[in-house]
Amino acid sequence: MKVVEIAFVGYPVTDLKRARAFYEHILGLTTSRVFGTEVEGWIEYDLGANTLAIGNVSPDWKPSPGGGSVGLEVEDISIAIRKLKEDGHAPTFGPIETPVCHMAGVSDPDGNSIIIHQKKSEQA
């Protein structure tokens, strides 16, 4: 087997309508593809060369705060964190600073982990 790229990152959700409200209105993502119905389906959001997907297409695929995580690059982490707090989604950790970035964690309505991330400029 030869893996050539990441096809998508997928998160299971329990309430598709509620999850879409979070991803589209709180995080500001734009829907790329929708499969299924408002109740049961698969939603894709293209982000650069990658795709983030949410769905509830299998009863065995369950949300987990201890599972994987996706890092979403933002233009201004301070603005992003302030907006998340205003919308009732306070960070689960951070913001923290590393030698190359700033980041903070947030949970979607099902507890799935999302990292809000901003790379430092190359001059830093």
Structural write-up:
The protein is of the alpha/beta class and 124 residues long. It has helices at residues 16-26, 77-86; strands at residues 9-12, 33-36, 41-47, 50-55, 69-73, 93-97, 101-107, 113-119. It has a single domain (9-57, 65-119), classed as 2,3-Dihydroxybiphenyl 1,2-Dioxygenase, domain 1, CATH 3.10.180. It has a four-stranded mixed β-sheet, with helices on one face. Strand 6 (93-97) and strand 7 (101-107) form a beta hairpin.
Helical stretch count? 2
Beta fraction: 35-45%
The fold-level CATH name is 2,3-Dihydroxybiphenyl 1,2-Dioxygenase, domain 1
Low-pLDDT residue intervals, each spanning 5 or more residues: none
* Main β-sheet description: 4 strands, mixed
Quaternary structure state of the chains depicted: single chain
Strand order, main sheet: write it out.
1-4-3-2
Helix share, percent: 10-25%
Q: What is the number of domains?
A: 1
Radius of gyration, whole Å: 15 Å
- What general form does the structure show? globular
Q: Which structural class do the helices and strands define?
A: alpha/beta
Fourth-level CATH superfamily: 2,3-Dihydroxybiphenyl 1,2-Dioxygenase, domain 1
Mean pLDDT: 91
CATH A-level architecture: Roll
What CATH first level would be assigned? Alpha Beta
CA(first)-CA(last) distance: 40 Å
List the secondary-structure elements in sequence, H or E. Answer: EHEEEEHEEE
Query: Got a strand count?
Result: 8
